[in-house]
Amino acid sequence: MKILVCISHVPDTTSKINFTNGDTEFDTNGVQYVINPNDEFGLTRAIWFQEQQGATVTVVNVGGPETEPTLRKALAIGANDAIRINATPTDGFFVAKQLAEVIKNGAYDLIIAGKESLDYNGGMVPGMTAGILGYNFLNACIDIAVNETNVKAVREIDGGKETVATSLPLIIGGQKGIVEEKDLRIPNMRGIMTARTKPLNVIEAVDAATNTKAVKFEKPAPKSAIKMVSPDNLDELIDLLHNEAKVI
Amino acid sequence: MSILIYAESAEGKLKKVAFEIASYAKKVAETLGTTVTALTINSDNVSELAKYGVDKVLKVTNDKLAGFNAKAYADVIKQAAQQENTKLVVLSSSTDSIYLSPLVAVNLEAGYASNVIDLPVNTAPFQVKRNAFSNKAFNITEINTDIKVIGLAKNSYGIFENASTLTEEVFSPNLEDNDFDIKTESIEKSSGKVSIADADIVVSGGRGLKGPENWGLIEDLAAVLGAATACSKPVSDLGWRPHAEHVGQTGKPVATNLYIAIGISGAIQHIAGINASKVKVVINTDPEAPFFKVADYGIVGDAFDVVPRLIEKLKAFKAQNA
């Protein structure tokens, strides 16, 4: 089984979010980048397929040379090789077009992406990629088992979960649950050393329309100060929630 | 030219999110000088959509579509959009709609903006405001394609009555066999409880509750308020509560009217997941807990002392205001 794990290179959660150039660009100054958490759950699941079922795991990312440390980290965690599509990821459709090309050329059986990235929160790349290729697609996937080309998987639904049966090739939007937080792997020294010599192929992007464009960013208005209520005056809290906030 | 919405239903009954996207679409339609068409799939009674400004309903009734199937539903939405010559499709942010929206966008060769939180900033060029960076910033996105798809964030616009005269039309889409390559085997739902996705109020507990045996406090408070229960990440990692209740960046997102955090310090990952909630209340013994910086109302106090008294007071309040 050939697995492709799509990796988004995103600011660490604790990063300060600021914008430059008249609020049209994200300010990367002093920002630490990580593997998008939803993708890291998927990467770990892919490594299990590699260890238990002999799958090969390729990681892919659309981005400039500055994203290579993130791909090297994925290699250190255990991926066999990496592909960097050398382009600025302008919008979800553009990225999906690039991934579709790699998937078609590489004949991957299972494509694991995170259900959304923590920077733009678009939540569209896995679905669009599946739409372009006409592949089966399962979003918000929290469990998956593959037996030859048969797949049994579970997705999260509002207020519960749904078990489905389908077949490869398949694209999934993964999230926590596909593996748990405790299953995530921290690269060890040996992994880091071998990652340096694993193949990281840089390929050029194919032409694709940019259907949407982020034209400006805004930060939320500063929040008004918290109103403190004495624990001995709970009537005041109920009054505030009823008359001021109007939520009860 | 009509705006198309996909008005979701559960067990034949229209969901609240359907009324929110109808209200939103009506307002946009007024700006653009057009009308709103709603697509429904196996909904029993669609007349209520008239209250929120829907002019026409395309009613699909088909046993093959009895259970949700993203590919098939996305195909049906595409066919409805083509019949109506729609230039704008508005979808909700339910788990199912988030799943099918990118497929609809590819089907229609449309640009898609998700997580939209307000009316369009501009209609020519078409620009919308959306949440990004886990609710830490807004992003104005321009959609350049002829047909546009937007996903409205839950609870971001609200439900407004704006009565219209509704016409109902039977719509019979063509379904392909390969629409059903993903087959549902079983569905498990926690019965009798308000789900986090549908709740107007969420009561959430953290490590400050000291152990799973004390969760009665959270459940009792939730019961008085008709709220869903949730928990912080450490609580689900410790196994005190099921993972399905974990809210935060890697857990479920919460965008509710009222979020009550009890014994939760407010780690940045937790706040990122719940910050879209309108009103936040924190009850914590530690006045330095970061949650106090983001909440609207706060009580410094012991949950074991405050919450039981709050439950009694709320019961009295509810009895009075019933």
UniProtKB/TrEMBL annotation, chain A:
The keyword Ligase does not apply. CDD domains: ETF_beta. One of its GO terms (molecular function) is electron transfer activity. It comes from the Bacteria. Keywords: Electron transport, Transport. InterPro entries: ETF_a/b_N, ETF_b, ETF_beta_N, Rossmann-like_a/b/a_fold. Residues 23-212 form the Electron transfer flavoprotein alpha/beta-subunit N-terminal domain. One of its GO terms (cellular component) is cytosol. Belongs to the ETF beta-subunit/FixA family. This is Electron transfer flavoprotein subunit beta.
UniProtKB/TrEMBL annotation, chain B:
This is Electron transfer flavoprotein alpha subunit apoprotein. It comes from the Bacteria. One of its GO terms (biological process) is fatty acid beta-oxidation using acyl-CoA dehydrogenase. Its cofactor is FAD. Belongs to the ETF alpha-subunit/FixB family. GO terms for molecular function: electron transfer activity; flavin adenine dinucleotide binding. InterPro entries: DHS-like_NAD/FAD-binding_dom, ETF_a/b_N, ETF_a/FixB, ETF_asu_C, Rossmann-like_a/b/a_fold. Coiled coil: none annotated. Residues 3-184 form the Electron transfer flavoprotein alpha/beta-subunit N-terminal domain.
